[in-house]
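Severity: low
Component: inverse-folding endpoint
Summary: output formatting inconsistent between runs
Steps to reproduce: submit the following structure tokens with default settings.
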């Protein structure tokens, strides 16, 4: 069982009572997790772990020091607090230092589910067994992992703030390859609820992609209409969101900078089809209602019908700009449409169906230009039908350009991004989309 609110508060209160510095900020994170990994159609490892880490930050004027410990006896807590205070005394002043937070109001947390917290080793092993059985039946070789976790976050300050939240995660990732190494497929899901994981469906999706992508041929790079499956859309969305820092914009260092100074909040930056928001109470991807500092996380509209409504404001920059701080969210939702994936394909005269992206890197922060590779299933679309697998390609594109070129979208689903974004970090909900004039720059022999 994970630590209760009462247990977490008791430890944090014991730690705060040792304060000699001007302020203390104490954070407690940890929980329990179990996993099974498999490769070459064989379970390879299984394990479980449990533990908690306490982080103590001491503030002395504008100086700060932080230490951590996983031992919670009195002597260990005294050493940890004393070390944080000593580091603070020896540190240079930080002109942007902010004081510890006073008590805050938080929404009700909805990210913990008993079915995940009670998930057994048999459930994890059964999920892997299903993948192995289906892989052998289709003559593919699969590898991946299944993990379930139950965790907490708690934070307290010497000024009276206390927050506690519990959350669960069920994660399943599967890559399937054909024996000759020419075909590859991938599928992955991450949910707070175990009941949302359909192990058979996930495995079948990856295996089918592997079989269909066998023996791909090349096509010329260039601009193509693309049908991006949700995992590929998630990558573009995440990179755009991570660029949305108000300070960078106000200082002229990002796409969101306004000519002449300031930022572009209130301007139309994307197609009116695009609406992006965050909400810790969103049922498909619930999250915690406060961040590591104790700032409340609430529903926030980022882009409304193409108009930029908000950026991330750190506490320091918010105070400087006389704004309310806006912490980075626990989830992000790109609203979808009503088309099916088949509809998107049927509406494409000549284009490319993309399973997901990989190895994405930024090229230009002023335009959010990215580069990356396709992976695990790339297919040519001709006259509204998927006709053959094609070799992977490198692409150069900005999510700003891509989201302005959206023609149609499916309903949304919870997505694991190719960059590893899942339950443990930013949860993503988005649709598949048909996008015109997506730029592919070169071919790749990678599978």
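Observed output (run 2 of 3):
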């Amino acid at each position: 069982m994970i630590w209760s609110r009462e247990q977490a508060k008791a430890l944090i209160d014991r730690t705060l009572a040792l304060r000699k510095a001007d302020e203390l900020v104490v954070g407690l994170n940890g929980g329990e997790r179990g996993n099974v990994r498999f490769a070459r159609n064989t379970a390879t490892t299984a394990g479980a772990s449990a533990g908690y880490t306490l982080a103590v930050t001491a503030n002395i004027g504008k100086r700060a020091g932080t230490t951590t410990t996983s031992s919670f006896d009195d002597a260990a807590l005294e050493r940890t607090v004393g070390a944080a205070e000593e580091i603070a005394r020896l540190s240079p002043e930080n002109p942007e230092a902010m004081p510890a937070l006073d008590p805050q109001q938080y929404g009700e947390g909805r990210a913990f589910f008993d079915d995940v917290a009670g998930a057994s080793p048999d459930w994890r092993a059964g999920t892997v067994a299903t993948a192995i059985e289906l892989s052998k039946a289709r003559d593919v070789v699969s590898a991946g992992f299944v993990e379930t976790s139950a965790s907490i976050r708690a934070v307290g300050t010497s000024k009276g703030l206390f927050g506690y939240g519990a959350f669960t995660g069920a994660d399943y990732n599967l890559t399937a390859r054909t024996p000759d190494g020419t075909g590859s497929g991938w599928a992955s899901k991450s949910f707070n609820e175990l009941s949302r994981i359909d192990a058979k469906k996930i495995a079948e999706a990856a295996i089918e992609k592997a079989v269909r992508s066998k023996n791909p041929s090349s096509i010329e790079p260039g601009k193509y209409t693309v049908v991006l499956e949700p995992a590929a859309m998630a990558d573009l969305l995440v990179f755009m969101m991570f660029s949305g820092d108000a300070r960078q914009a106000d200082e002229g260092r990002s796409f969101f900078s306004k000519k002449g100074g300031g930022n572009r909040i209130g301007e139309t930056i994307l197609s009116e089809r695009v609406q992006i928001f965050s909400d810790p109470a969103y049922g498909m991807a619930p999250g915690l209602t406060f961040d590591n500092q104790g700032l409340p996380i609430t529903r926030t509209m980022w882009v409304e019908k193409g108009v930029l409504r908000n950026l991330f404001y750190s506490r320091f920059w918010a105070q400087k700009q006389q704004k309310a701080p806006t912490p980075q969210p626990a989830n992000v939702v790109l609203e979808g449409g009503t088309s099916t994936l088949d509809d998107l394909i049927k509406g494409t005269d000549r284009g490319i169906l993309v399973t997901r992206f990989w190895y994405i890197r930024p090229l230009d922060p002023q335009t959010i230009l990215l580069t990356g590779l396709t992976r695990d299933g790339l297919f040519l679309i001709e006259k509204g039908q998927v006709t053959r697998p094609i070799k992977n390609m490198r692409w150069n594109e900005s999510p700003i350009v891509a989201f302005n070129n959206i023609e149609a979208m499916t309903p949304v689903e919870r997505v694991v991004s190719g960059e590893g974004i899942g339950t443990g970090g930013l949860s993503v909900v988005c649709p598949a989309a048909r996008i015109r004039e997506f730029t592919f720059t070169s071919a790749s022999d990678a599978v």
